[in-house]
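Lecture notes, continued. The same structure-token format from the folding unit now serves as the input rather than the output. Read the line below as a description of shape only.
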């Protein structure tokens, strides 16, 4: 999966326009679309101005009823917020793109005349792969990713109570790195190891000459991959001894991710 920097730039610009929409019209007209230089050098300037703002006595009555920030100070806060959020855009966008594809479904086929009790399948995928289980019913909108809590909008009361943001975007689809909550015992669990991504499916009973489908999963990688994902799986059951093993390759679809251009990304727009 390849996500070009221009795609991330487009998402950051879109988010910036949304946050600056709360500025007065005359202030939004003071800058034109495409002037993103503030995102590169605003970190120190925004921190300095916020420090001066925080040094004001908290007892000032004005703090309770008007915004003490200037429009430029709010722009600095927004630019600092976007600088901190940008590293988290890539992994969340990669997950959202992966959810656009058809998930994988493994199946256990019993060709014997005996019932197999509690068949447990463990799948190990080599390389730098990630997994999503229990995907949402509808694929996420690539143009509207979840973002951390932004700075307090310009014009709201008590701006000194600035929201604290981590710069980490939440993952879509209930994704949890490394483990799944105990409230969902019938879903696969997984862990990253030296051998690769180890996915353990919940045990299932398989009747004679029957086939059971395992829970669907979505695999993806943000790095370059070969034509097939190399994986190994083992299967065991409680009423038979021994272990069934097999190696296989899962076809890999190479994707280049782009966000369709909007009019705001083409024509100069007043911010």
């Amino acid at each position: 999966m390849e996500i070009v920097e221009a795609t991330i730039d487009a998402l950051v610009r879109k988010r910036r326009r949304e946050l600056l929409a709360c500025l007065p019209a005359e202030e939004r007209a003071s800058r034109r679309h495409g002037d993103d230089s503030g995102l590169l050098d605003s970190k120190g300037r925004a921190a300095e101005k916020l420090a001066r703002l925080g040094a004001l006595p908290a007892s000032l009555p004005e703090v309770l009823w008007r915004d003490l920030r200037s429009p430029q100070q709010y722009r600095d806060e927004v630019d600092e917020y976007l600088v901190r959020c940008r590293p988290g855009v890539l992994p969340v966008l990669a997950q959202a793109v992966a959810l656009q594809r058809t998930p994988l479904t493994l199946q256990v086929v019993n060709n014997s005349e005996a019932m197999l009790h509690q068949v447990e399948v463990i799948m190990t995928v080599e390389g730098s792969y990630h997994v999503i289980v229990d995907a949402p019913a509808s694929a996420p909108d690539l143009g509207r990713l979840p973002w951390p809590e932004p700075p307090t909008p310009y014009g709201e009361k008590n701006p000194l109570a600035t929201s604290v943001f981590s710069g980490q975007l939440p993952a879509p689809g209930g994704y949890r790195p490394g483990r799944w909550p105990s409230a969902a015992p019938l879903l696969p669990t997984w862990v990253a190891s030296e051998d690769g991504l180890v996915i353990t499916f919940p045990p299932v009973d398989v009747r004679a000459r029957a086939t059971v489908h395992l829970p669907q999963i979505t695999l993806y990688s943000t790095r370059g991959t070969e034509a097939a994902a190399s994986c190994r799986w083992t299967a065991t059951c409680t009423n038979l001894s021994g272990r069934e093993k097999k190696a296989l390759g899962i076809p890999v679809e190479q994707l280049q991710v782009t966000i369709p251009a909007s009019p705001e990304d083409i024509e100069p727009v007043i911010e």
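Point for the exam: The radius of gyration is 25 Å.
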